[in-house]
Amino acid sequence: MDYYCVIGFPIKHSLSPRIHNRAFKKFGISARYEAVSVRPEDLGKFMRRFRARYVGANVTIPHKQKVMRFLDGVSVEARKIGAVNAIVNRGGKLIGHNTDCFGAMEALKQNGARRLEGKRAVVLGAGGAARAIIYGLKRAGAHVLVLNRTLAHAKKLAKEFRCQSGNLKDFDPAKCDILISTTSVGMWPKTSLSPLPNLLKFYSKNKLSRPFVMDIIYRPHITKLLRDAKRAGCQIITGDHMFLAQAAKSFELWTGRKSGLMKLWRDQGSNRNFGVP
Ligand code: ATR
Question: 129, 175, 186, 203: which sits with the fewest CB atoms below 10 Å from its CB?
């Protein structure tokens, strides 16, 4: 039996075990995927145990950057992004990958945000997920503005990825074609929060063209930010699109298999969050 895991803190909300265990079963692979809560101060200790027990993993909040120092190598893309959300253990060698970037670009593409060249993209948040998304957007030719609660974090990213930066309150509805939240604001169970509480007010008062609005949170299915965006007439992209696309890419890295995954997971009810709130 091969063991896989997702590590994060908090991790209770994660739906990764459900979807990956379902896929292992479907493909007849003898493996188990579990969620492991790892406090930031315990990451080093856990990674030493990891090598002996697990053949693969996903990495989530808040470890996507710090985990890199415990790996033997990282893919070219993960190095450029500066964040890892998938690990492959090949005979004791731990290699880090980034499948978030692929996941986010797939999510945009699948939902009609295809041509990104010259588009004004506003990214909320400056963590590991933001890095992957900014990298993808820049590569596709978009103009990127990163807005964050802590300005210093946004400034650091802006310098690295050659984009603009500001505070969340600097959001200008007249200068946004695509809005993507990578913050944890609004995640279950604090579902009444939004990183941009005034979004609905901004857009209901004028005839500005409406941006695509994407949230990478997938639990709840429709976050407060997306609810407001929908009411304001924006096209919304729910977090399950990126979640499933990054998961499929991770599964492919571990097992070499990819076909049928999306259908399996969609049939399983991803758009209703697999039966959980
Ligand atoms: P990940 O690696 O998954 O992206 P992260 O590195 O913990 O996760 O980043 C989370 C992001 O959410 C950060 O940009 C964080 O802002 P700070 O840089 O100011 O910490 C943002 N965030 C978390 N809680 C927030 C809150 N209550 N309000 C606004 N932003 C918040």
Answer: 175
Give the residue whose CA is nearest to atom 11 of ligand 1.
183
Measured in angstroms, how far is the CA atom of residue 185 from the centroid of ligand 1?
A: 8
Ramachandran class of 182: left when φ > 0, alpha when ψ lies in -120 to 50, beta otherwise: alpha
Q: What is the pLDDT of residues 75-132, one digit of tens each?
A: 999 999 999 999 999 999 999 999 999 999 999 999 999 999 999 999 999 999 999 9
How, if at all, do strands 56-59 and 86-90 pair? Answer: antiparallel
pLDDT band at 266 (very low <50, low <70, confident <90, very high): confident
252 alpha carbon – ligand 1 mean position (Å) = 29
* Lookup: tokens for 84: 């890892």
Task: Give the whole-angstrom CA distance, residue 194 versus residue 181.
Answer: 9
How many angstroms separate the Cα of 118 from the Cα of each of 11, 102, 253? 37, 20, 32
Atom of ligand 1 nearest to the CA of 128: 2
65 phi/psi in degrees, rounded to 5: -95, -45
Name the residue among 275, 253, 250, 274 with its Cα closest to residue 264: 274
Distance CA 132, CA 68 (A): 14
Cα–ligand 1 centroid distance for 127 (angstroms):
6
Strand order across the beta sheet in which 56-59 lies: 31-37, 2-8, 56-59, 86-90, 93-97, 73-74
CA-nearest residue for atom 3, ligand 1, is 61
Question: How many angstroms separate the alpha carbon of residue 166 from the centre of ligand 1?
Answer: 14
Question: Would you say the pTM of this structure is higher than 0.85?
Answer: yes
3-state DSSP percent of the chain in helix, strand and coil, to 5: 45, 20, 35
Whose Cα sits closest to atom 18 in ligand 1? 150
Pairing of strands 73-74, 56-59: unpaired
